[in-house]
Design a protein that fits this description.
Keywords: 4Fe-4S, Chaperone, Cytoplasm, Heme, Iron, Iron-sulfur, Metal-binding, S-adenosyl-L-methionine. This protein is an alpha/beta fold. It has helices at 2-11, 36-49, 69-76, 92-97, 104-117, 134-146, 164-170, 179-195, 214-220, 247-255, 268-281, 288-295, 297-312, 327-330, 333-340; strands at residues 20-26, 51-62, 82-88, 120-127, 151-156, 199-202, 205-207, 233-235, 239-243, 261-265, 286-287, 316-319, 322-325.
């Protein structure tokens, strides 16, 4: 599979001829279990086929049980300069309920080692867990802060079909996640991280100055990107493409020198809706000047009309011709965005 990934990187270099690679991100599944030689091969293939900035952000996603001290040292001795670690919780009962492979001690131990070899670390935390008190959630945040982690991504618990969690809820072993509890946890998170000099730069992401995720910020700012491997998505500003998810079909296509992808050309309305969704989730907001220039007066008039009621309810505000969510509106930003969407104006 690694050789196929390297070959796809080579096959797609013409798509990025006029661009410079700023970030390389190994995510999806558990890329940290790849051999160091595999990661190095893929990074070197990017360097030999694309223009790369002098000091790109190179991130590896990992779970705590993948990150022994030896593994962390191996990763740090290469071009990798950022770790994104799926902690989720520092409490044993939460991890068991979410069917995580690691335990609480492994979560803390891997951060002890990781912070010795990496400055740029992000951890994932889950809020809105059934029966989690506000005090327990605050302890989770404080434990992460005790390791001087500069970036935290935090998401509300979601229940996927055919998972252990879904089964527990169906059997009445644990209750359904409560939206009001999730909102309380979210506000505790925002307040606590703000007190500790984190910038809430995207709905689910908090970073200290100079520690925002450059990779994810590229998505939210509408930059071009190429996704490599089964199920990976790519975007060039006008078209979105996605690779086949089946590993066998993916490998067969690459062996035949064919890109295993489908492509969709985004309409103006699609691009408007995506900008509204990403803009409201971030500190950069929605530029009304950009709406006027890129989409036209009809779109701008519609946006202003739809946004007016949220401005009146103190959920949105306009500052220097940028539409943003208020502190009160941030948790509701996805719902607000959907009300600003257009079905079609073309």
């Amino acid at each position: 599979m690694v050789l196929a990934l390297a070959k796809e990187i080579e096959m797609r270099n013409s798509e990025f001829q006029d661009e410079v690679v700023e970030t390389i991100y190994f995510g999806g599944g558990t890329p940290s279990i790849l051999e160091i030689s595999d990661l190095k091969l893929l990074i070197d293939t990017v360097y030999s086929n694309y223009k790369v900035v002098e000091n790109p952000e190179i991130t590896v996603e990992a779970n705590p049980d993948d990150l022994s001290k030896e593994r962390i040292i191996e990763l740090s001795n290469n071009k990798i300069n950022r770790l994104s670690i799926g902690i989720q919780s520092f409490f044993e009962d939460d991890l068991k309920m979410m069917n995580r492979a690691h335990n609480s001690e492994e979560a803390k131990e891997c951060l002890e080692f990781a912070t010795q070899y990496f400055d740029n670390i992000s951890v994932d935390l889950i809020y809105g867990i059934p029966e989690m008190s506000n005090e327990k959630w605050l302890q989770n945040i404080e434990t992460a802060l005790s390791f001087n982690i500069p970036h935290i991504s935090s998401y509300a618990l979601t229940v996927e079909p055919k998972t252990a969690l879904h089964s527990f809820i169906q059997k009445g072993i644990i209750p359904q996640p409560d939206d009001e509890v999730a909102q309380e946890h979210f506000q505790i998170l925002v307040d606590k991280l703000s007190e500790n000099d984190f910038i809430h730069y995207e709905l689910s992401n908090f970073g200290k100055e100079n520690y925002f995720s450059k990779n994810n910020s590229s998505y939210w700012l509408g930059k071009k990107y190429i996704g490599i491997g089964p199920s990976a998505h790519s975007y060039d500003g006008e078209k979105r493409s996605w690779n086949v998810s089946n590993n066998t079909l993916y490998l067969k296509s690459i062996q035949e020198n064919k890109l295993p992808s489908e492509t969709e050309i985004l309409s103006k309305t699609d691009r408007y809706n995506e900008y509204i969704m990403t803009g409201l989730r971030t500190i950069w907001g929605i530029s009304l000047d950009r709406i006027q220039t890129e989409f036209g007066k009809t779109y701008l008039d519609y946006l202003n009309q739809q946004a007016a009621k949220y401005i009146e309810d103190h959920l949105l505000f306009v500052d220097e011709n940028i539409l943003r969510t208020t502190k009160k509106g941030k948790f509701l930003s996805d719902g607000i965005a959907s009300d600003l969407f257009l079905l079609n104006l073309e």
